[in-house]
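Question (not urgent): is this output format expected?
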Amino acid sequence: MNLRRLRLFLLLAEEKNFHRAAERAYLSQPALSQQIRALEEELGVKLLERKPFRLTPAGEALKEEGKRLLEEVEALKERVRRAGWRELRFGVPENLLPDLMPLLDHLRRGLGQAVEVLEMHTPEQVRALKEGRLDYGLAGLKVADPRIGEEPLFKVPIVALLPEGHPLAKEERVALWDLREEPFLLIPRETLPPLHEAFMEVFRKAGFAPKVVREVARFPQAVSLVAAGVGVYLTLAPYRVFPHPGTVLRPLKEEAALQVSLIYRKDPAPPRLAEVRALLATLAL
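Got this back:
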């Protein structure tokens, strides 16, 4: 059966008027009438009376069964499309992964498509997007690249890691200024320049330069050193889910946070960009 003719017949059955149905189908009335006659010839039955307009019993049957048939055709097309989809590849910084898993699960369910999560920091995400090894990135740092699209999602607070016996460890929030005399551990600039600079900007806004006694690239190493009393450490709130024995994580009283954004290559655009945007818009971030 010709599906275009079936759709035109169902439109006519809904409107019960050739003129209105032809307008909705962007056809002339004679062209619509010709398509309906061709469908009747294909099926070998009369589907409607024209004056006055009414469906024959065969037309009524086709109206009911035709709707179901078109729904099944659309469902089949969707199943075939989904079968041909590969996994969507998302780059996510390790330090943001705990807070971003609900977002990724939301996308996986909403898209009905597998999502592969690749741990990589923002600069590596940008390289992978340009090389076609990644579809999307969830970046915790600002991206200044004309080839990369960037859409803000939410902010992640910067927090202080203190020894559990520290005088300020009992406070719910810590003013960074109150730590100005403390020795600090800091992520090395060469490890992740944008994050290092983001932390330095927090210190500048607080009104002092930190006394950096050691550079530390990995959170587990920072935990050991902070627990041993070597210094205090700035990190990101998602690290609260990682083990940090002998230490406490405390939010800062100052406004200090990293902007998390969806990033992607602009040309060519990634698969299902409009759907990803729509799903993220429905998520309370």
